[in-house]
Amino acid sequence: MKPTHQPVLLAETLCLLKPTAGESYFDGTAGYGGHAAAVIKRIGEGGRVVLVDRDRQATITLQRRFGRRAEIIRANYLEAASRLAEDGSLFDIVLLDLGVSSPQLDTPERGFSFNLKAPLDMRMDQAQVLSAAEVVNGYTRERLADVIRRYGEEPRAHKIAEAIVTHRPVETTAQLANIVRRVAGSRGHIDAATRTFQAIRIEVNAELDSLERALPQLLRLLPPGGRLAVISFHSLEDRIVKNFIAREAKDCLCPPKQPICTCGHRASLVKLTPQAVKGEDFDSHNPRARSAKLRAAAKINQKQKEVTT
Ligand SMILES: C[S@@+](CC[C@H](N)C(=O)[O-])C[C@H]1O[C@@H](n2cnc3c(N)ncnc32)[C@H](O)[C@@H]1O
Model pTM? Predict the structure, then answer.
């Protein structure tokens, strides 16, 4: 199968990560290998390459494309990064490109798209138990409303949750989309079901939790001078990445009015992107890139207190 996912902000990611011959590379969301192919081309045959994805179909494709050059791991990047950090593995380049891939969205039976009629699924990892059907039909109205409000930033979350509960059992993506559209009304060019589908997908895959818990593990994977880049597609994801980098780029985390530092925190990262690099500015020809934000940082060499890149 030909890979059908167009990598987002590819040139900008390469410019920040600066892969060089012989370096090592960990990709926690390798998908169909769009970013991986470009990074591997630059690092050549030398360094260790680990490509991770939790999606079975993606890892089959990765194995076929890169099986001879890379270690392919089917896992949550949180688990993979924790295991590798425990082993003391180090990678010069660490990349997360979050969200869903085009093949996930475009395969009707995966249930990610509100434009295609399919069973309610939305699991990135097909072996996982929790699916969209359980969230939509099993959560209480309050819990469902909370998911839709928090992860979808949907102002009509309560009304949508109420309508879903009234129409249970909801069996297909088309059914769910129509229920939501009737309540949420249209908003310009954006389908009214967009926010609710996004919210349910984030809940099913525990996306924010994985990111929040993985970032400290990814930091452990970086040697001095190593570079980390994260591409996110949701404001809550971007906030997690932004706050993590800001915190790790600071020497002291004591309250600003405290005269003497008592926390002992020392900066371990230096920001490579003072502002997020936005897909709408740099990759506007790629429709998937519209909401993308790229942030990157490099690990400080604690002894020299300078970046060795
Ligand atoms: C936007 S796509 C990556 C595309 C890839 N960079 C490329 O150019 O082909 C996101 C991928 O991350 C995977 N993914 C999302 N969350 C994950 C997680 N917690 N652990 C592992 N893989 C994850 C999805 O299954 C999907 O294949």
Answer: 0.95
Q: Whose structure tokens read 């190593």? A: 226
**Residues flanking ligand 1, CB < 6 Å:** 5, 7, 28-35, 52-55, 58, 76-77, 97, 99-101, 124, 210
Atom 2 in ligand 1: residue holding the nearest Cα: 101
Low-confidence ranges of the chain (pLDDT < 50): 1-3, 306-309
The CATH architecture to which 129-204 belongs is Orthogonal Bundle (1.10)
Q: Which two tokens mark 284? A: 């506007």
The confidence score (pLDDT) of residue 308 equals 46
Which residue's CA is the nearest one to ligand 1's atom 12?
Answer: 29
* Closest-CA residue to 72 (of 93, 94, 56, 95): 56
Residue 110 CB coordination number (10 Å): 22
For the CA of 124, the nearest atom of ligand 1: 25
DSSP string across 214-227: HHHHHHHHPPTT-E
Taking the domains of the chain in order of start, what are their residue ranges?
10-103+207-299, 129-204
Q: Tally Cβ neighbours within 10 Å of residue 2.
A: 5
Judge: domain 10-103+207-299, CATH 3.40.50.150: yes
